């Protein structure tokens, strides 16, 4: 019993020490002044290899990239077009 307690406490101390040494993970952010890239996503169900092959070819030719495939559902992404620039609020009189 005492051996188990020592092992558990040792594991907790080791885990806490590693957490302090490694620090927190941080998400990657875009550089200041640079817009983050936006993506379009689309998923479609396919029934069979021939249909999946045809869909992948058609989407690839349209600039889509296959990012996931599960149970016949194919998910694609491509860079989204830039948002429209806002109209100039000053009419320029």
Written overview of the protein:
- By secondary structure, the chain is an alpha+beta fold.
- The protein has a domain at 38-81.
- Helix content is 37%, strand content 22%.
- It is built from two helices and three strands, in the order αβαββ.
- It has helices spanning 2-22, 49-61, and strands spanning 39-45, 65-70, 73-79.
- A three-stranded antiparallel beta sheet has the order 1-3-2, with helices on one face.
- It is flat.
- The protein starts with a helix and ends in a 14-residue tail after the last strand.
- The model has no long low-confidence stretch (mean pLDDT 85).
Could you name the key traits of this structure?
alpha+beta; three-stranded antiparallel sheet; 37% helix; 22% strand
Provide a concise account of the structure shown.
The protein contains two helices and three strands, in the order H-E-H-E-E. The chain has 93 residues and is of the alpha+beta class.
**Helix fraction by DSSP (H/I, runs of at least 4):** 25-40%
Radius of gyration: 25 Å
Strand residue percentage: 15-25%
Low-confidence stretches: none
Class of secondary structure makeup: alpha+beta
Mean of pLDDT:
85
Q: In sequence order, what are the helices and strands, one letter per element?
A: HEHEE
Strand order of the largest sheet: 1-3-2
Distance between the termini: 87 Å
Number of helices: 2
Q: Multimeric state of these chains?
A: single chain
The geometry reads as: flat
Report the count of strand segments. 3
Please summarize the sheet with the most strands: 3 strands, antiparallel
């Amino acid at each position: 019993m005492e051996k188990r307690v020592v092992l558990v406490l040792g594991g907790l101390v080791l885990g806490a020490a590693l957490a302090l040494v490694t620090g927190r993970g941080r998400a990657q952010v875009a550089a200041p002044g640079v817009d983050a890239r936006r993506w379009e996503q689309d998923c479609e169900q396919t029934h069979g290899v021939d249909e999946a092959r045809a869909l992948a070819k058609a989407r690839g030719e349209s600039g889509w990239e296959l990012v996931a495939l599960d149970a016949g559902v194919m998910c694609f992404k491509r860079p989204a077009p830039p948002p429209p620039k806002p109209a100039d609020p000053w009419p320029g009189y």
